Amino acid sequence: MNKDLDSKQKRLLEILSNLGRTLVAYSGGVDSAYLAYIAHQAVGENMLAVIADSPSLARTHLQDATAFAEEQHIPLKVIQTAEMEKPDYARNDSSRCFHCKDELFQVMGEFAREHGFAAIAYGVNVDDQGDFRPGQRAAAQHQVAAPLLEAGLTKAEIRQLCHMAGLRVWDKPASACLSSRIEYGRPVTREALQAVEQGEDALRELGFRQFRVRHHGEIARIEIATDELPRALTAEMFQAFTRIFKALGFTYVTVDTEGFRSGSMNASRPGQRLVKLPGQSHFKIAPVGGIGNHRPIRRV
To answer: Which domain holds residue 198?
Structure first.
């Protein structure tokens, strides 16, 4: 470990130790998994990882997150959240993530007060700054701590620390809730979430590793990582995709020739388009007509 990374990790341990009894918002992704792991290392039983279960959480993600916590002996609590019952969430505009995180942190706050926890922490990192992440606004309003960000850790550094600690999540592909697969302005329904989840389960069973099923009403748009695209763009796979997704209720089935792109749904936000700037590894969102005042997109 280089000196800079070692210094950041020590700073992180110090931050966590100073928080007192802490609830960690946990999803099973790389950031929250490492935060839960290192918080347990720092304060032992004075922390509790909390995962929110709702229709927008894929069953495979819940199972994997639960398994990881068990492997690392991290205390875990599964709570139920009701963001689906909120009209502001269900209408699926660009503030959807705010209403989701607002519900999460409200429920966690109530649990913390009832069980004597002093703080709530979540896994935002340095690379998330500037991205389109309304959930960060909810975290700020609920005074949720951001230890990874405060310690100055980037996504790559968090993956490196996971790898060094022998955590299997170190190379886990980025993911997000199922609602992020539904185009803006189309209501989030249980039926739509179920179609997306079953479609992604089918792609996983076909052996693909990084993908998204984008829900555009009658159209299923399948994004698959570019290094896996050659296998997807075959007559055999076309037949499989057609059979699977029409059985799920889609009228049209498409494979996106640009491959998997984090945040591609942001292109459907009014007055926005996706651009890729020199030296960038992911797409950015920019106003139609120019990129002079572009704003980074939310990575999903």
So the answer is: 189-255
